[in-house]
Structures are given as C-alpha cells and as structure tokens.
Amino acid sequence: MKMYPLQIYATLLILSLFLARPICGAPSQISSNSVLVALIDSAHYTELTELVEKALLLQTLEGKVAKSNITVFAPSNEALEMGLDPDFKRFLLEPRNLKSLQSLVMFHVVPGRVGSENWPGESGSGHDPGEYRTLCDEGEDDKLVLTRESSGQKYVGGLAKVTRPDDVVRFDGVVHGIDRLLVPRVVVEEFNKRSLREISAVLPEGAPVVDPRTNRLKKNSVSPVPAGAPPVLPVYDAMAPGPSLAPAPAPGPGGAHHHFDGESQVKDFIQTLLHYGGYNELADILVNLTSLATEMGKLVSEGYVLTVLAPNDEAMAKLTTDQLSDPGAPEQIIYYHLIPEYQTEESMYNSVRRFGKVQYDTLRLPHKVVAEEADGSVKFGSGEESAYLFDPDIYTDGRISVQGIDGVLFPMEEKAEKNATEVDTRPQVKVVAKQNRGKLLEVACSIVGAFGQDSQFTSCY
C-alpha cells in the first residue's frame, strides 16, 4: 500500500505517543536524582532500606514519588541495630506478618514536603504541633505529630529526635534522620497478640490417664500439646530411669518437636561456669562423669525449668572417697542440688525473709532442701554441712538459673540413716581430696577401671 508523506507523519506520531505511554499498573520511571534513589544509596539508612525491600514497597514508593513530593523520617542504622528488639524484628520479618511490616515502613513516609524551614512551631508557644497523615493508611492511627522545643530541637511522634534534619534534599522530597523507629499502634497491637498466643499456656483437652503399674501415661490417652504449653508429666517422670555413666535419653511429654533448645542452654550455662571461674569440678561431673548435662538439656527442651545450686571448687574438694565410691553417687549428689523451679537470688531471699524456713523440692525424690535467711543471705541445709548463697545469679536465662554456694549439701534423712546403721567402732579415716581440678574425674576412672570398663571413656586416658 502506497502511503503519502502526511500519512507517514501521522503514523509515526501515533506510534511515538503509544510508546511513551506507561504500561497500565506500572509506576512511571523515576529520575536517578530522586529522593528515593538518594535514600537507598545513603550509607546512613541501609537498615531501613532493607526493611523497605523486605516489605516489597519499592515500586509503591516509586509511584508515590512520581506523583508528588514525599517526606521520609528515616531511622539511622544505629537506631535499628541497637534499639530494635530482636523478638520484634523477628516478628516483622516473618512472611505472614508482611502487612505489619508494610504498615510500619509506610508510617515513616508523609505525602508532601516538610522541610526544616516549615517545621511546626514548639508546643506551648502559641503554635499548635503539626499533625501529618502518613502513608500507613490505618485511619486515625496513621498520623504523626511534629513538634519543636524552644532550643530548636525537632521531634517526630513525641519521642523520636531529629538527628540529621534535611539530610537528603531533592526536587521530589526530603529525608530527615531520626534516632529511633516509629511504630504505629496497629503494629504494636498485632505484635502483642502474636506474642501472647505464642507464650500462653494451652491446657490439653483431655485429662491424661496414668498407668499405676508403670507410673507412665497410657498410650492413646494424651491429647496433642501445643508448643510452649506446660509439660504434662511431673518432672520426676520425665527424668532418665536411673543414674548411669552411659548417656540415657530423658523421655518427656513433648514428643519429637521440642519448643526450647535445652541442649544449647545447658552448654551455655556450663560454659558460663568455666568462664566465671571456681566451678570446674561441677562442670567435670556434668560433662565427663555423668550424663546429667544431656538429661538436663532434654528436660529443658520438654519445657521444664531448673535451678542449679552449684557448689564451688573449694566445697567439692572436701568430698571424700567414700562419698564418691558408691555406684551413681555423683548423680545422686547433683540431683540434690537441682530444684525443679526457676528461682533467682532475689526470689529465694524474699521467700526466706517472709516465711522463715522454706523447703524446695529437689530431683532427688523425695528429699527436699531447706533454705532460711542468715546474715543477710540465703543459707541451705543446717548444721555443719550447711551452705550459703555465695555467688548469686551466675546464670539466669528464664529456663535455667545457676546459684553458686560454698558447700555440698546432703539430705538430713540420709545422714541420720547412715549414722544409725554404722556398727564399726574402729576410727574412720577420711581421705580428703586435694583442691585440684579433675580429681573427681580420677576417682570415677579408678572406679570404672576396677570393672575393666575404662576403655569406654576417653577422659580416662
């Protein structure tokens, strides 16, 4: 088909207009000198840029910038790294909480240009604080109040201080650096609801049936227990069947899906004992001589809490060979120093001050340890073999509490029973162990060596 020059010109004009038209639904291309590009390139706000990318809001903000000016109140990297709670950050970055993250990011953006020269006047000076609607789009909760003190210091939302006013100024917007994250109320409420759902104790639907012959739950009688719910079994039923030098798993009600990382927590508190100093003998017993570290880790993973009364090295060195020679003696000694409750120095001291003597259950059933107030501290046991709370709160993480004491405790009932059965009138010579780290390990190795089992323990070489 033959086309005349006028037709060719019209065709080219229509084609050029069509190509210049943006695709439906896509934002117009923004300038490389845009305020959004400058914000992304700034070294002061890389943490905020990461949140914008995680919230999938780059294209949305490009569209806003292309249409009108914007003002961004940008928390600095230091504000987000040091001031942002790890649990809250984890909540924001979960894919199912994308809407909350988007609301939080948009709460820092105001449509329109608010520079330092037109910042609202100070409150109380006759000028009302400026109230600006953000892009959060949550009704009345999406507004920010801008104020200024008589000294000239500017604030956003009443708490966030403007540390870098007019930090980025471009033709299409301005960025002010602030010292903290701005969180809309809708995000705070959603985080609180989610946190309560995660930590609240959910009781099982049906009461468990215990077999009186085995003292264990009958099969097919346990309803599924949500993660984080309190354990179904008493702590004694979740313990290993008996003391043993071989590692033994601790059966518990939580099944294979544990909510707490007990193994890491036990490793952490043992490592803390070693760094703290003066508790190496106890660490040897937990790690080298027994399977107690493994058992404690499984108990904590099942949801139980423990308070460890940790005798220091000086106290452990006073243990005699007779006290350690019986099979399972190290386990029984440590069991009496494990309280199946979470107690701190403050909680125990307040209890003994209020009630006088307090009895705590131990994992050495049925023996209890008695605590009372003495000399402004907490004293455990009675008589010559009592022990004082010597190093309080060596380790407290909400699941395991470690309290250092200056003596080794023994049940009063056991001591009375031993005295009643003694018939040998010959003088008993007690061999006191030297105060050297690893003495308890040597004693245990000599015991198992007598049975020809030392080849099982690498620590005995």
UniProtKB/TrEMBL annotation:
A Pfam family that the UniProt record links to this protein: Fasciclin
Location within or outside the cell: Secreted
Residues in FAS1 domain copies: 32-182, 266-409
GO cellular component: extracellular region
Family: Belongs to the fasciclin-like AGP family.
The protein's role, per its UniProt record: May be a cell surface adhesion protein.
Protein name (record): FASCICLIN-like arabinogalactan protein 17
Record organism: Artemisia annua (Sweet wormwood)
